[in-house]
Design goal:
The structure holds two protein chains of two kinds. Chain A has one helix at about 20-35, and strands at about 55-60, 65-75, 80-85, 100, 110, 120, 125, 130-135, 140-150, 155-160, 170-185, 185-190, 195, 200-210, 215-225, 240-245, 250-264. By secondary structure, chain A is mainly beta. Chain A is rod-shaped. In chain A, about 35% of the residues are buried. Chain B contains one helix and nine strands; from the N terminus they run H-E-E-E-E-E-E-E-E-E. In chain B, strand 5 and strand 6 (about 145-155) form a beta hairpin. Classes of the chains: A mainly beta, B mainly beta. At the A-B interface, helix 1, strand 1, strand 2, strand 3 and strand 9 of A face helix 1, strand 5, strand 6 and strand 7 of B.
Chain lengths: ~260, ~230
């Protein structure tokens, strides 16, 4: 109710009509009793002490060395959310969140959360690879951290006549590529394109998307591309066979998703 | 103060001065203790926020950068990224990090060179982290004096070596080759879920070699580091 007008003017010397009195006073009281609106409030009048403090919700916080942590902070104009899986002890070099062996590889997107083998709080989940919260209409901006390791693999080729200890064949390296993507409610909002990954590398991928007032699920997905090398050219009666191949698994260590929901 | 009661009079009824005064006193008193029951939903727009000299939605922002100096990382113990100056953001009078507030940290830098022990048999041992260097954020609490790490780590390889030591004779394993000239990052979003205030003295980015002695040095140059706090 932006404006209030006097409907009945009381005239000096007259008796006040009860209906007029009730109407005038009810209008003033009603405005204060729940109808105060933007036009009643002065601009730039809300300062820090008048803003509500943030409130937090912690879904999961394991205290083990492998820390699973999902938390939310709800503020007046925005909310922050984080899902994290990290090793509290960085000297522990054996920690891996997830291992994808060659038998797990597909040509399509792999969802990091698809391997749910670690129960936390009675629920099988991989914190750090997915994040759920109730969004309000506005924007979501955020970033993922994805610590991936895929060591270079190779094939050793041995000439057929020398398939024994006297190995003189060729050794060839295979090239491994990875693409990392961020999906918000199954829609790809950011991707890295294929990146060569012959070791351990940590990807920081920012993302943003408009969002309505809906439940949100943000998760990390990746695609693996493995280029097999060609067999060495045979000739002169020599053929080659695979002497040994070593195909490394794909492993993920630390991962995290944080998101900021900026309200409209 | 959700509702203000007023007296309603019937036609012909004589209103008393006491009732009228009570109505006006109630309105006067109520107008000073308004709460969200008195306002319409979404009455507040961004124009109603007092942005002042510094916007308080994100209350604090500090950053640093250096493009001239180079740091050689030679230890496997976490130590501050020591360009000029050190990559430590110090809060002049301490920063109250209140419950529910969020602190975002972003860091990136170039790894311009790496020194590895080439030809060493350990090149191909199964410990796959022996060619890696690693970043992590640390903070110091100005009240307790405690220094502690924050969040996860970011780790990067310097070579493309395999993690396997083939037993076949004749060698021929893939050669460890330096991966240099890569831009590397580390970031974290820290929500204070402790329920209490953390008094931040400083926040810094630290680096280390994961292991020795295969990787003996990594050179870092041209870095940036930002920290800011979100409150509302």
């Amino acid at each position: 109710m932006p404006r209030q007008y006097t409907q009945r003017t009381f005239i000096g010397g007259n008796l006040a009509n009860a209906e007029d009195w009730n109407g005038e006073l009810s209008t003033a009281a009603a405005e204060l009793s729940g109808q105060l609106d933007q036009n009643n409030m002065p601009l730039a009048s809300v300062d820090d002490p008048k803003m509500a403090d943030p409130s937090t919700v912690v879904d999961v916080d394991s205290t083990s060395v492998n820390r699973f942590f999902i938390a939310h902070s709800y503020m007046p104009t925005q909310s922050y959310h984080i899902s994290e899986c990290s090793d509290a002890d960085p000297t522990d070099l054996t920690f891996f969140t997830t291992t994808f062996n060659p038998d797990d590889w597909r040509r399509a997107w792999h969802r990091l959360a698809e391997k749910r083998t670690t129960p936390v709080g009675g629920t099988n989940r991989y914190a750090g690879s997915e994040l759920k919260f109730q969004a309000q209409e506005g924007m979501i901006v955020g970033e993922i951290l994805f610590d991936a390791s895929w060591r270079i693999s190779y094939w050793s080729w041995a000439a057929s006549s020398e398939d024994g200890p006297g190995f003189t064949g060729a050794t060839s390296r295979n090239d491994a590529f990875i693409e990392v993507g961020v999906f918000v409610n199954d829609v790809c909002c950011a991707r890295t394109d294929y990146q060569w990954l012959g070791g351990r590398f940590t990807y920081h991928l920012p993302f943003s998307t408009p969002i309505g007032t809906v439940p949100v699920l943000i998760d990390i997905r990746f695609r693996l591309k493995f280029d097999n090398v060609k067999e060495p050219a045979s000739g002169g009666g020599t053929t080659y066979s695979i002497k040994e191949n070593w195909i490394n698994p794909f492993q993920v260590r630390d991962s995290q998703i944080w998101a900021r929901n900026v309200y409209r | 103060m959700p509702t203000i009661p007023i007296t309603n009079y019937e036609a012909g009824e004589t209103m008393s001065s006491a009732d009228a005064n009570t109505d006006f006193t109630t309105i006067q008193a109520g107008s000073a203790i308004l709460d969200d029951d008195n306002t319409r939903t979404e009455w507040c727009s961004r124009f109603h926020l007092d942005q002042g000299a510094t916007p308080f939605i994100n209350t604090s922002f500090l950053s640093m950068e250096d493009f001239d100096t180079t740091m050689a990382v030679t230890t496997n113990v976490f130590s501050v990224v020591a360009l000029v100056p050190n990559f430590r953001i110090t809060f002049p009078f301490g920063l109250g990090f209140f419950p529910g507030e969020t602190l975002r940290m972003h860091f990136d830098i170039n790894a311009v060179a790496a020194a590895i022990v080439s030809g060493n048999a350990t090149d191909y041992l199964t410990d796959i982290n022996s060619d890696c260097y690693q970043f992590r954020f640390y903070f110091r609490d100005s009240v307790t004096g405690v220094t502690a790490p924050i969040g996860s780590t970011s780790t990067y390889s310097t070579t493309n070596k395999t993690d396997h030591n083939p037993t076949s004779t004749g060698g021929g394993q893939p050669t460890a080759v330096n991966r240099i000239g890569q831009r590397v990052n580390h970031s974290y979003c820290w929500i204070n879920t402790t329920g209490g205030t953390i008094n931040l003295d400083w926040i810094e980015i630290r680096v280390r070699l994961c292991e020795l002695p295969f990787l003996t040095s990594v050179s870092l140059k041209e870095g940036t580091f930002q920290v800011f706090k979100a409150r509302h």
